[in-house]
Design brief:
Strand order of the largest sheet: 8-7-6-9-10-11-12
Radius of gyration: 26 Å
Number of helices: 17
Distance between the termini: 47 Å
Number of strands: 22
């Protein structure tokens, strides 16, 4: 008999599902503090939670029988993932269970903006009849621009088609055939903004997406355009949005999420051409039922079959397995991080080839770590070796693996190649002393690089003065060069240079490097 503790309120449907399973016994006790949870947890095989229960290291150390923690929802900030991994406890969530609900709220905001529904409701309640003032706009035949094409963005695209809209989308981490499959035209970010009648955001909040819609982006949009954000606060620069709405540079906006929640004292509250909701993206009965039933199904499946659906961590490897595979996995992870920094469009296929001693261990953990490096930090969900294969499939990335016992010139070598629609980039790496990673090839350029810290990678004409020009720009910005490697020129008299710098370059400094006449391309990668 497997015993499950439910320590947060779950929808009745999820509880009923668990009660109907043979070999499963459940106990519900909510509102537990850490001490109380520590006293109870030792006798349970599984723990089902939402956001209130704090699954700390101490709790996990007391959970001597615990095999799995199931989070009904997406966020796992209340779970110590590192401690769970050390204890061999799987942690899983339900990333897609409330996707439909969030997508439908975005569509609802499109209607609210188009037909002035909140203002019309208030007008009638105040005894007014302002039909001319509340003139609306049709949705059919308008362009729906979707920023972020994950599960929610794809559902919005489907709904947009049903409304007779033209659907375009931008997501640099989704392969082109995924856009085609879901009926969206893949465009770049500038085109997405310029052509939008309705711009709806469905991307994660990351360092690179913080304020992704700011003064510059709003200036590209039509005066008749409307902006909807049901994704994350911080994607929109609220000060820039206030200026654009107040000055009539866009027609309207609808927000469900905010930089600060609730948005007390926000100047946006003083405007009439914006609609607000209090973070209702997942707040439907159906969504609450869906996450509860889904996590119940996932936990039961794991307890009965060992299949870990939407797992966010890994059970412990044996010391021997970890010692054997970890150096190669670490190298593959670094190569994946460098690769995503060198490719500015969606990857459709990833080739992972291992040679020499690297071919003597199982390739899948190495390939998985390469994909973790590729996706980690690009998506809202945690990425690790458990869930990365499903993430790759969702993003439309095919994996091809190969092993060769011979590695010319090296004891071990890992080569990964990212294929885009019209471009491919290959990286090769090796280990010094079986522990120290080195990048030894970028495409056809041989170059030995210590892959750590901030790296500036340039492709430039092989002629005097280029290195001096770049060094001068860095020096003027008070950025110190800690290492520099330059390749031999190829048949086109182009060379590759990798500079390790003391501090990351800001946009202005990187732009100045790109504007050096002999520089064909310059990228910064921070490891």
């Amino acid at each position: 008999m497997k015993k499950i503790l439910i320590s947060d309120k779950l929808a009745e449907d999820g509880v009923n599902f668990l009660n109907a399973q043979e070999g499963i016994q459940i106990h519900i006790q909510t509102g537990l503090d850490e001490d109380e949870l520590c006293e109870l947890i030792a006798e349970y095989d599984a723990l089902l939670i939402r956001s209130d229960t704090q699954v700390t290291r101490r709790v996990l150390q007391c959970a001597t029988k615990l095999k799995v923690v199931g989070r009904a929802g997406i966020g796992v900030d209340n779970v110590d993932l590192a401690a769970a991994t050390e204890q061999g406890v799987i942690v899983m969530n339900t990333p897609d269970a409330n996707a439909t609900t969030t997508a439908e709220l975005a569509i609802a905001h499109i209607f609210s903006l188009s037909r002035n529904l909140p203002a019309a409701n208030l007008s009638v309640r105040q005894g007014k009849w302002e039909r001319a003032k509340l003139m609306g706009a049709e949705i059919a035949h308008k362009t729906l621009s979707i920023l972020g094409f994950g599960t929610i963005g794809r559902i919005v695209a489907q709904r947009g088609h049903g409304l007779g809209m033209r659907v375009i989308a931008y997501d640099p981490y989704v392969a082109p055939d995924v856009f085609a499959k879901h009926g969206a035209e893949m465009v770049d970010l500038d085109t997405l903004l310029k052509q939008a009648d309705y711009l709806t955001l469905h991307c994660p909040l990351l360092e690179k997406t913080k304020n992704i819609i700011g003064h510059q982006q709003l200036a590209m949009m039509k005066k008749s355009a409307r902006l909807i954000n049901c994704a994350r606060g911080g994607l929109v620069d609220e000060a820039a949005l206030y200026d654009a709405l107040k000055e009539g540079r866009i027609a309207g906006a609808a927000l469900d999420v905010y930089e600060n929640e609730p948005p007390a004292d926000s100047p946006l509250l003083s405007l009439d051409n914006i609609v607000f909701t209090p973070h209702l993206g997942a707040s439907t009965k159906e969504a609450q039922i869906a996450v509860s039933v889904e996590i119940a199904r996932q936990v039961v499946k794991y307890l009965q079959t060992g299949e870990a659906v939407n797992a966010l961590n890994l059970p412990r490897l044996s010391a021997e397995e970890l010692n054997e595979a970890q150096p190669f996995m670490n190298l593959a992870n670094i190569l994946g991080k460098v690769l995503v920094g060198l490719i500015d469009r969606p990857i459709e296929k990833l080739d992972v080839a291992v040679f020499g001693k690297a071919a003597q261990v199982k390739i899948r953990p190495i390939s998985a770590e390469a994909m973790v490096g590729l996706f980690k930090g690009q998506l809202s969900t945690p990425v690790n070796r458990v869930n990365v294969e499903n993430i790759a499939k969702r993003q439309g990335v095919a994996l091809v693996e190969s092993q060769t016992e011979y590695a010319e010139g090296y004891q071990s070598l890992i080569k990964i190649t990212g294929h885009c629609a019209d471009k491919e980039v290959s990286l090769s790496g090796t280990l010094l002393g079986h522990q120290h990673p080195r990048l030894v090839g970028i495409n056809h350029f041989e170059i030995e690089v210590v892959p750590e810290g901030a790296l500036l990678i340039t492709r430039h004409d092989d002629k005097p003065g280029v290195i001096a020009a770049i060094s001068s720009i860095l020096g003027a910005a008070n950025i110190n060069i800690t290492r520099m490697q330059v390749s031999i020129a190829d048949q086109n008299q182009l060379a590759m240079m990798v500079i390790s710098v003391s501090d990351p370059l800001n946009e202005q400094v990187l732009k100045a490097v790109c504007e050096v006449p002999a520089v064909h391309a310059a990228r910064q990668i921070v490891l």
